[in-house]
Design a protein that fits this description.
about 650 residues; alpha/beta; 5-stranded parallel sheet; 24 helices; elongated
C-alpha cells in the first residue's frame, strides 16, 4: 500500500491541503493563464471555422468581407453577453446555472446535457484535427497509427489534468503563445504584402453585391451569406468555458473573468477575421490533403527554405493548439458535471475532489466519453464536426435568453441601465438562436439528428437519476425527522475511561442514519459499552471549495452534527466524545481517523449503517458510495473490527 501511494504521488503529485489559507491563491488562475487554458478552444477554432465559412461562399468570395466583419462582431457580442453571466454568477456554473436559475430546472437540464456532449466532442474533435495536421507532415505509411496516437494524446491530457488545472496549463502555455504570435505576424505581413488589394476590397465587394442582387435577387444573396456565416459557427465555440470556471479564477473573480473574456474576444476576433481577410486578398484554392490555412500561409511565405521552415512551424503550432483546445474539455467539462451533481442530475461522486483538488471522477468520465466517440467514428473529423457544431449554440441561446428574462423581470432592481442590457442580451440571443436554427436545418440530415439523439439520451439518464435521488432524499428526510431525539438540558458531563469497552460510531450527513446505528448498538449490547465515540469526515467537494467561508461553514456543520450525538449521550449519563477529520476522500479520512482513535481506545468496536434498497444493482451502487464496505475492508486490513448494521430504505 505504501508503494502504491508513492507511485500515485509521483504520477499525480503530492496532496494539497484545501484548508490552507494560501491554497486558493496557489491553484487559482490569473487572467493570462485563464486565457491560455480556457481560451485555447476558441483560438483553435480559427483553424477550421473561417475555412468552412469561406468555402461555403463558392464563387462569391467577395462576400467574405461581410463574414469577416460579422465574425468579429459576433465574438464580441457573445463575449460581452457572457461578461454579464460572470457578473451574475461569480461562483461558476456558466450556461448551466444561468438556465437553471433564470429559466428553471428543465432549461438548466437541457443546457447542462448540451454542455456535457459539447465538451466530450471538444476533446475528440480537437485531438482528431491535431493529429490530422500532424500526420499530414509525416510519410503516408504512418497513417495507420494515427488513431492510436489520438488515443495516446487523450490519455496524456487526462493524466496531466489529474495533476491539477494550473499544472496542465503551464505545460501547454508555450504552444498557445507561439500560435498567437506567429499567426498575428502572418496576418499582418500577409495584409501588408498585399496592401494594394486591401483598398479594393470594399468597392469590389459592394460591386459584386450589386451585380449578384441584380442577377438573382437579394433574398438568395442574403441566404448565401447567412448560410456561410452559420457554417463558420465553430469559430465561436469555447467562449463559454470562462463562465463555467469562474470559481477557478484569481480574486477578484469577476474582474479576472472580464479581463479573460477581453483577451479571448480580442485574440479570437483578430485571428479569425484576419484569416478570412487573408483568404479574400490571396484567393487560395482548396487543395486535396491540405487545409485552406496551409494553402494561404504557403502562398504568403513562398517556396524558399526559410518559408518552408516557417510554414512547418506554423502548421505544427496549429496542431499543438488543437491539442491544447482538447484540454479545455477536461478543464470545463467536469465542472459542469459537478454543478449538475449538486442539483441531483448526476451521481454524487462527480462533485468530489481528489487530493490534487481536481474533479477526478469527472475527468475520468470525460476521458472515457471522448475515447468512445473517437473510436466510434475512427477519428474522422468530417463526422465529428457535424456532431460538434450544434450543442454549444443551444447553451449560448438558453444563457442569453435567460439574461433577457432577468433584465426584463428585475428591471431597476438589478441595474439602472437594465433596458440597455436587455436590448443587448436580446440582440445577442437573436444572433445565436438564428445560427442554431440555420445550422440545425442545414445539417440535420448530415448528422445533426445524431447530436439531438445523443443529447436527449443524456437528458433522459439525468431525469432517471434525479427521480431516484428525489425519492431517496424524501425517505431520508422522513428518517431524520422520525429518529431525531430532543436534547434536554442540563447535561451530565461523564468522564471516559479508555480501558472500558467502547463503541465507535461513524456519523455521515444524515443524523437519522447515525441515530439508527446508536440505538441499535444500545439495543443489541445492553449496558456493555461504557464509552461512545462518534467519528465524522467533512468532505471538501466542489460546493464547499467555492471559498474560505464555504469551507468554514462545512466545518461548522460537521462539528454541530457530532456535538448533537455527544449531548444526546450525556443527557442519559453515557460517556461520549467526538472526533472529526476534513479532506477530499471520505474513506481515506475516516480510515486514518479510526486508526488514530483506536490507539486511545484499545477495547473498541466500530459501527456503521449501510442503506439497503429493495432492488439493489449496479445503478444503485453507482449513485451511492459504498463507503461502509470499503471502510470495513480497510479496517480489517489494520486488524480492526467494523460491524455494518443494515438499514432498509
Amino acid at each position: 500500500m505504501a508503494l502504491s501511494k508513492q507511485v500515485k504521488h509521483w504520477v499525480l503529485g503530492q496532496p494539497i491541503n484545501p484548508f490552507s489559507p494560501q491554497i486558493l491563491r496557489h491553484i487559482s488562475l490569473v487572467a493570462f493563464l485563464a486565457w491560455v487554458g480556457l481560451g485555447a478552444d476558441g483560438l483553435s477554432s480559427s483553424c477550421y471555422g473561417p475555412e468552412e465559412a469561406y468555402i461555403a461562399l463558392g464563387q462569391h468570395t467577395q462576400f467574405a468581407l461581410y463574414i469577416a466583419v460579422a465574425t468579429a462582431i459576433t465574438v464580441f457580442v457573445i463575449s460581452l453577453g457572457y461578461n454579464q453571466v460572470i457578473e451574475l454568477f461569480p461562483s461558476g456554473g456558466g450556461g448551466y446555472k444561468v438556465a437553471t436559475q433564470l429559466l428553471g430546472s428543465p432549461a438548466g437540464l437541457v443546457s447542462g446535457a448540451a454542455l456535457i456532449v459539447d465538451y466530450a466532442l471538444t476533446i475528440s474533435i480537437s485531438i482528431a484535427s491535431a493529429m490530422d495536421a500532424f500526420f499530414s507532415m509525416l510519410p503516408a505509411n504512418l497513417l495507420p497509427y494515427k488513431l492510436l496516437a489520438e488515443v495516446g494524446c487523450i490519455l496524456l491530457l487526462l493524466l496531466s489534468n489529474m495533476r491539477g488545472m494550473k499544472e496542465s496549463i503551464k505545460i501547454l502555455m508555450p504552444i498557445v503563445v507561439g500560435f498567437f504570435a506567429i499567426h498575428v505576424s502572418l496576418i499582418l505581413y500577409g495584409i501588408m504584402a498585399h496592401h494594394r488589394g486591401l483598398f479594393l476590397i470594399v468597392p469590389n465587394t459592394l460591386q459584386e453585391t450589386r451585380d449578384t442582387i441584380h442577377l438573382i435577387g437579394w433574398v438568395p444573396v442574403l441566404a448565401l451569406t447567412l448560410h456561410a456565416y452559420s457554417l463558420g459557427s465553430g469559430t465561436y465555440t469555447g467562449i463559454e468555458a470562462v463562465s463555467n470556471n469562474v470559481n477557478r479564477l484569481r480574486e477578484p473573480r469577476v474582474e479576472t473573468g472580464r479581463w479573460t473574456m477581453f483577451y479571448m474576444a480580442v485574440s479570437l476576433s483578430f485571428i479569425a477575421s484576419g484569416i478570412i481577410l487573408l483568404y479574400l486578398l490571396w484567393q487560395p484554392q482548396p487543395t486535396p490533403g491540405q487545409t485552406l490555412n496551409a494553402t494561404v500561409f504557403h502562398a504568403i511565405l513562398g517556396d524558399s527554405k526559410l518559408g518552408n521552415i516557417l510554414l512547418l512551424v506554423t502548421l505544427s503550432l496549429e496542431a499543438g493548439l488543437l491539442f491544447v483546445a482538447a484540454n479545455t474539455g477536461f478543464l470545463a467539462g467536469p465542472s459542469v458535471l459537478a454543478n449538475m451533481a449538486i442539483d441531483g442530475w448526476m451521481p454524487n461522486r462527480f462533485r468530489h475532489l481528489s487530493t490534487r483538488l481536481v474533479i477526478q471522477n469527472g475527468l475520468i468520465l470525460f476521458g472515457i466519453l471522448a475515447l468512445g466517440i473517437l473510436l466510434w467514428c475512427h477519428g474522422a473529423v468530417s463526422v465529428l464536426v457535424i456532431l460538434y457544431s450544434i450543442n454549444v449554440f443551444v447553451t449560448f441561446s438558453l444563457s442569453l435568453f435567460g439574461l433577457c428574462v432577468y433584465w426584463a423581470t428585475k428591471r431597476r432592481e438589478a441595474s439602472p441601465r437594465w433596458f440597455l442590457r436587455l436590448l443587448f442580451s436580446f440582440a445577442a440571443f437573436t444572433i445565436t438562436s438564428s445560427i442554431l436554427c440555420i445550422t440545425l436545418f442545414s445539417k440535420f440530415e448530415s448528422g445533426g439528428w445524431l447530436t439531438i439523439v445523443i443529447t436527449c439520451t443524456v437528458i433522459f439518464v439525468c431525469l432517471l437519476i434525479k427521480r431516484h435521488y428525489k425519492r431517496f432524499n424524501k425517505k431520508l428526510l422522513q428518517i431524520d425527522i422520525q429518529l431525531k431525539q430532543p436534547i434536554v438540558h442540563p447535561l451530565q458531563n461523564i468522564n471516559l475511561d479508555p480501558q472500558q469497552p467502547t463503541a465507535i460510531i461513524l456519523v455521515g450527513k444524515s443524523p437519522g442514519v447515525a441515530m439508527h446505528s446508536l440505538l441499535n448498538v444500545i439495543r443489541m449490547f445492553p449496558r456493555h459499552f461504557k464509552n461512545f465515540v462518534f467519528l465524522s469526515a467533512g468532505i471538501v467537494d466542489v460546493q464547499s471549495f467555492a471559498g474560505q467561508s464555504e469551507l468554514e461553514k462545512m466545518r461548522a456543520e460537521v462539528n454541530k452534527n457530532l456535538q448533537y450525538f455527544v449531548d444526546y449521550c450525556h443527557q442519559y449519563g453515557i460517556a461520549a466524545e467526538a472526533y472529526a477529520a476534513f479532506g477530499t476522500d471520505t474513506v481515506e479520512e475516516l480510515t486514518n481517523l479510526a486508526i488514530k482513535v483506536s490507539h486511545k481506545y484499545s477495547n473498541c468496536i466500530f459501527f456503521s449503517s449501510k442503506l439497503i434498497f429493495d432492488h439493489e444493482n449496479f445503478i444503485s451502487r453507482l449513485l451511492h458510495n459504498e463507503t461502509a464496505l470499503t471502510l470495513q475492508r480497510n479496517l480489517h486490513l489494520e486488524g480492526k473490527e467494523l460491524v455494518i448494521l443494515p438499514m432498509k430504505i
